[in-house]
């Protein structure tokens, strides 16, 4: 078992965060303008109940994964919900528990605030990630729609 350290993002992590998030976006064939990188990084360090948060995974001091998550209100409960927005493990670190460790860390952070509903989405073709998700969470059966 690989020794994985999960901790909140720090300002000094910018280059590694950018490398990992770019790889995540590449996986989904997405290119974002520099202004969005700058805004996302700024928001990750902005105080506020609904601002996004970030965690980084380290193995032997090397950044190998990241996640972004945020809280939002729900009409169905007093407690907020937690949306795990981005989850990425460096391809060289896959299968070593990085993704599961990041998910568990988000669950623990949410739990500190009394949040019990942590959820996320993935593309139906993301078979590798879905194997992990099927193991650590329940599939709800909901189908996403959006207005673009």
TrEMBL record:
GO MF annotation list: acyltransferase activity, transferring groups other than amino-acyl groups
Keywords: Acyltransferase, Transferase
Gene3D superfamilies with a match to the protein in the record: 3.40.630.30
Transmembrane segments: none
Domain N-acetyltransferase positions: 4-148
PROSITE patterns the UniProt entry points to: GNAT
Pfam families registered for this protein in UniProt: Acetyltransf_1
Entry keyword Transport: no
Protein name from the UniProt record: GNAT superfamily N-acetyltransferase
């Amino acid at each position: 078992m690989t020794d994985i350290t999960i901790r909140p993002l720090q300002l000094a992590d910018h280059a590694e965060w950018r490398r990992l998030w770019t790889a995540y976006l590449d996986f989904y064939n997405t290119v974002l303008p520099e202004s969005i990188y700058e805004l996302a990084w700024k928001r990750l360090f902005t105080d506020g109940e609904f601002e996004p948060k970030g965690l980084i995974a380290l193995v032997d001091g090397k950044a190998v994964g990241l996640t972004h998550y945020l809280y939002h209100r729900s009409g169905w409960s007093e407690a907020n919900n937690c949306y795990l927005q981005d989850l990425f493990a460096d391809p060289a670190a896959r299968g070593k528990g990085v993704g599961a460790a990041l998910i568990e860390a988000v669950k623990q952070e949410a739990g500190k605030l009394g949040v019990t509903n942590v959820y996320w989405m993935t593309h139906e073709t993301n078979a590798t990630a879905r194997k992990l998700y099927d193991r650590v969470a329940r599939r709800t059966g909901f189908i996403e729609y959006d207005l673009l």
